[in-house]
Amino acid sequence: MTSPDETPVVRPLLTVVRGEPTPEQLAALVAVVSARAAASSDGAAEPAPPSLWSRPQLRAPLSPAPGAWRASALPH
């Protein structure tokens, strides 16, 4: 437990490991990271429903045979 006169140690959000970015580049990076973090914490987003293209009931069964490629484009 910290006493009232002690300030808690705060770790930096980002650390530059290599290179020398300009203050503008760092500001742009912080803006993007902050926007992404805010977008992901806007609440529990519902997962996207599965695509109807993945439903096997909507596809005709595959039957390998001579000329099957031609029959695959014909209506059933």
Tell me about the largest β-sheet.
Answer: none
- The radius of gyration computed from the alpha-carbon positions, rounded to a whole number of angstroms, is 28 Å
Fraction in beta strands:
under 5%
Q: CA-to-CA gap between the ends?
A: 73 Å
Helix content: 25-40%
Please work out how many helical segments DSSP would assign: 2
- What is the succession of H and E elements? HH
Tell me the structural class: mainly alpha
General shape: elongated
Low-confidence region ranges: none
Count the E strands: 0
Mean pLDDT across all residues, rounded?
78
Any overview of this molecule?
The chain has 76 residues and is mainly α. Helix content is 29%, strand content 0%. The protein has 2 helices and no strands. It is elongated and about 80 Å long. The protein starts with 22 loop residues before the first helix and ends in a 5-residue tail after the last helix. The model has no long low-confidence stretch (mean pLDDT 78).
Note the topology.
Blueprint: H1 23-40, H2 68-71
What are the key terms here?
mainly alpha; 76 residues
Short recap of the structure:
This protein has helices at 23-40, 68-71. It has 76 residues and is an all-alpha fold.
